[in-house]
């Protein structure tokens, strides 16, 4: 079977679906192929016994009126499911401190000063710098284009305009890694106790930006019904724009004509497919693209080495818990709880150890009552984890080299889940375990199986000076018309990053295919014209 398209998108997660809908609106016929039986990737979630488990999103950013997620989704359709602003954001929670991050910075500053009165001067300076970043963040919403969508003179003009805006970042960006964070925090604080509030952060900007975003009211929960509402909406929009979405379809190879991509060979169950297109976009794992879908040697060793050496997000051990009572009865609210142990080395907060690793705990049902039956609740526990931990989570190896989940694997999942429950009993509420109806646990092996992401990573490559210096993120490959979309094309993760990636990938295609329309779309995403004006111009 052969079919012809303008663009074939490998990967039906949120980025692939967002890109497909954007290109569809712009007149490009797309085919999105997804190897699983349902699209959506991390945002799909799953149902168990009347409970909807939303497994991916802690919170959302960039959904304010000028945010890039809002602009991208509004471009697709102004009827997109609206997230709800959070008034209680993050609870920094340990034996030594309990501080609630919220939009009112004066209240947060007062909490810090009350706990650490000897650090008042440094606290004022820290919050002043966070406020600078909050102003910068608002201004940057008009400077979200990738330089890869620009001409030489366009880049020059862009950098001249953006440089004064990003100056507040430049003085902080060099403080990364354990030594860097400690040195950066020492600019503000004298004692170790207050620095321990940020004991799990990998760079100084990760300490400052949450306060900047909070000041901007830039934290949101998922829309009513959970993140799956985004999925339903994106599927409907792709259908409306005439795109094809092929489920249970696995890409087997990118078809090349010399050094140019011209299609994808795929298998849908037992059916062999050849999908021809002018552009191929991998909105999927970049490692798998280079390793499995292209002939050996087509990607240079320099590029492969750069990807191997990049700083990437870890995977996770996640437990979704169904409770026999509302989560609020056990003390959970809409805020994320960052549960940390004090006096540890920084790496220990992400070393897959349920006894002391940092835990991110939230209650989706406290945010949205529709996710479970009335008078019940949901709590989700996240622990950063490596796929290599516990000898690859006690999986076994088949003669073909595949990882097999046997008794050791399932026993380990149960053991770690029970240790996490015990920790919540000890540190959050002594009755937590008594109210568990049932639970589902996922390991890095689970995430790798369902997403094919390298090592089960949750979000791809981290922002930071090393990845920026090495130019890890790019929408282009060494193959003509083979583009990278999703979380591997931009540093960072989550819906803001994937929507930004979708926007820039769409612009790269549009710049070649319809220069007049490209210029008008640029004006919208740069904040120079309204969506109504853009829609009038492009029809």
Question: Overall pLDDT, averaged?
Answer: 92
Over the alpha carbons, how many angstroms does the gyration radius reach?
A: 23 Å
The major sheet is characterized as: 7 strands, mixed
Number of helices: 19
Shape call: globular
Alpha-carbon distance between the two ends = 33 Å
> Which regions are unreliable across 5 or more consecutive residues at pLDDT < 50?
none
Strand content: 15-25%
Labels describing this entry:
19 helices, 7-stranded mixed β-sheet, alpha/beta, globular, 539 residues
What does this structure look like?
The chain is of the alpha/beta class and 539 residues long. Helices cover 39% and strands 19% of the residues. Strand 10 and strand 11 (260-268) form a beta hairpin. Helix 1 runs parallel beside helix 17 (494-513). It is globular, with a radius of gyration of 23 Å. It starts with a strand and ends with a helix.
In short:
This protein has 539 residues and is α/β, with parallel strands linked by helices.
List the helices and strands and how they pair.
Elements: E1 2-10, H1 14-25, E2 30-33, E3 46-48, E4 51-53, H2 68-76, E5 84-85, E6 90-93, E7 98-101, H3 105-115, H4 120-139, H5 152-170, H6 177-186, H7 192-195, H8 204-215, E8 220-221, H9 228-240, E9 244-246, E10 249-257, E11 260-268, E12 271-282, H10 286-293, H11 301-308, E13 315-323, E14 336-339, E15 359-362, H12 364-367, E16 377-385, H13 389-394, E17 396-397, E18 403-404, H14 407-427, E19 436-442, H15 444-451, H16 465-469, E20 482-484, H17 494-513, H18 515-525, H19 531-538
Parallel strand pairs: 1-2, 1-12, 2-9, 6-14, 12-20
Antiparallel strand pairs: 3-4, 5-8, 6-7, 10-11, 11-12, 13-16, 13-19, 14-15, 15-16, 17-18
